[in-house]
Specification:
339 residues, Methylamine Dehydrogenase, Chain H, four-stranded antiparallel β-sheet, 28 strands, disordered N terminus
Length: 339
């Protein structure tokens, strides 16, 4: 309890400092182009200039950073970390303009994913060991509600485009929680026996969710209205993040043990192409126009790398060095995990 009180005191003063130092407004989409890469074993975020594809900064984080996302208004980027390794962990908030740590917010144990709402006024954080979804106000950066989820081990999550529903992949119970964030109702969607869901994507109209399954090596299509699986498709080994292309009906899925990204045609519901990208692909994010996808390569040595995938040709243009075991990735003003 003493340790928790000390952490809360530190967080309070960090929050006060952030109110003084936080940006009045975000950067404009045309002013800077950035890609943020979480390096889990380096305890850092690599900041990449997307114009010249060079790493321009290494930002220290807390222990074992898991995921990263960016504010839709271009003010902040967010990182989940296992700070205490005990019962309460953190979301760290950084200034996009300076890369400075502004504040930290205590959430449930082992936060897996952080997703802002479309307006940038709320953050949703899934915590695997607490089985909770924390809702954080922005820019106050205070937890305003903690929802207990059905299912166990919430990992990747996605929000429908209207900002009203969050789906979380429950890795330990093999199902998906469906959260009505307006009325605070929580339902459970069953997956096939043996499923180990990892992450989710959502169609542009919000009608369907797509959940990757590392147990069955499949992707499942979920009818959001009827709360049921309507189709399943076999893909590569250990599919990770699922992110629908921003302008075309394709799902690009990094498959960790296949060293490839599987391109799924959502209209035909078939694998369109298997794209070799490098060792251990994990995270994926798109530029706003969808021309490029950035894929983290956790298995590359002596350091992790990021593959730049041209989605017009479905070829890797180049790879960029990152830290050890790069996992989550986000593009400033791009299409990121959770949307």
């Amino acid at each position: 309890m003493v340790a928790i009180r000390m952490i809360k005191t530190v967080v309070f003063w960090l929050t006060m400092a952030s109110l003084i130092a936080s940006p009045v407004g975000g950067v404009s989409p045309s002013s800077i182009q950035r890609v943020y890469v979480v390096n889990q074993d380096s305890n850092s975020v690599s900041v990449i200039d997307a114009t010249n594809l060079k790493v321009i900064a290494g930002v220290p984080t807390g222990s074992n950073p898991r995921s990263v996302n960016v504010d839709p208004q271009g003010r902040y980027f967010y990182v989940t970390v296992l700070f205490t390794r005990d019962s309460d962990d953190l979301v760290q908030v950084f200034d996009v303009r300076t890369n400075a740590l502004l504040t930290s917010v205590i959430v449930g144990h082992q936060p897996a994913d952080v997703v802002p709402d479309p307006a940038g006024t709320r953050l949703y954080v899934s915590s695997e060991f607490a089985n909770t979804l924390s809702i954080i106000s922005v820019p106050e950066f205070k937890v305003i509600e903690t929802l207990k989820l059905k299912g166990k081990g919430p990992h990747g999550q996605v929000m429908t485009p209207d900002g009203k529903t969050v789906l979380t992949a429950n890795g330990r119970s093999g199902d998906v929680s469906m959260v009505d964030v307006v009325h605070k109702n929580v339902d459970l969607i069953q997956l096939p026996r043996g499923a180990q869901p990892v992450a989710l994507g959502v169609s542009r109209d919000g009608a369907f969710g797509y959940v990757t399954d590392a147990g069955l090596n499949q992707v499942h299509k979920i009818d959001v209205v009827n709360k049921a699986v309507v189709a399943s498709l076999t893909i590569g080994k250990r599919p990770m993040q699922a992110l629908v292309h921003p302008t075309h009906p394709f799902l690009y899925i990094p498959c960790l043990e296949s060293d490839a990204v599987y391109k799924v045609d959502l209209d035909a519901w078939k694998v369109e192409k298997v794209i070799a990208v490098g060792k251990g692909p994990h995270g994926i994010a798109y530029t706003a126009d969808g021309r490029y996808a950035y894929v983290t390569l956790t298995g590359e040595r002596p350091e992790g790398r990021v593959a730049v995938l041209d989605t017009e040709t479905d070829r890797v243009q180049t790879t960029i060095p990152a830290g050890d075991s790069p996992k989550g990735i986000a593009v400033l003003f791009g299409k990121n995990q959770g949307w």
